[in-house]
Amino acid sequence: MLLDGEEWAAKFENFQSEAWRLETLPEYRVPQEEEEIRQFLAGERIDPHAYSNEYTDDLKRVRAEGKSKGRVHIVTRPLSDYLRYEFMYYQPHVWAGEDIRIMDVTDRENPLAGVQDFWMFDKSEVVLMHYAADGTQTSREVHEGDASPFIAYQRIALAESVPFEEYVKGLDV
Q: 81-96 and 34-41 helices cross at what angle (nearest 10)?
């Protein structure tokens, strides 16, 4: 079953304890971000201490409700322009309550090679994220099978990654 619109948004409203994502791509093409990316590449930066939006507000709500939201992003260096842009927003997201971790596989084998992007809700429901080669999302699909392999992927990702703030110490992003 493909997910879109209200059904997709409901996943983030209705999870009971955890929403978790694996990100594997060096770039995601999101039309709403195009102007911000241009500005970033021109040298503009957000103030992470002052930054707030709907997403950070929702992260605070999730945390206040005793739930968690997290992700692991698999990266290689040098970081793409998109990742450098995305990392700018990761800091205020971390401060708002998201557990963001980075798995850098530049100098080692990727233990999750071939695993596609996904969201997992409450370790029971998985949504596969489908992308074109350029990072444009093509669809979201509810995984109809067993969630166990995705729980294992999450366990590996968490074990093989470091917290975002630790990863970026000393990096010029």
A: 110
First to last CA, the chain: 38
Give every CB contact of residue 84 below 8 A, 6+ residues apart in sequence. 40, 173
DSSP state of 2: B
Instruction: Please say whether the dihedral angle defined by the alpha carbons of residues 75, 79, 82 and 87, taken in this order, is positive or negative.
Output: positive
91 CB contacts (<8 Å, ≥6 apart)? 48, 164, 165, 168
127: left (phi over 0), alpha (psi -120 to 50) or beta: beta
Q: Which residue has the tokens 């800091």?
A: 91
List per-residue pLDDT tens for the chain, 173 residues long.
888 889 999 999 999 999 999 999 999 999 989 999 999 999 999 999 999 999 999 999 999 999 999 999 999 999 999 999 999 999 999 999 999 999 999 999 999 999 999 999 999 999 999 999 999 999 999 999 999 999 999 999 999 999 999 999 977 66
d(CA 105, CA 83): 14
Rounded CA gap, 152 and 160, in Å? 12
CA distance 171 to 108: 19
- Contact call for residues 75 and 26 (beta carbons, < 8 A): yes
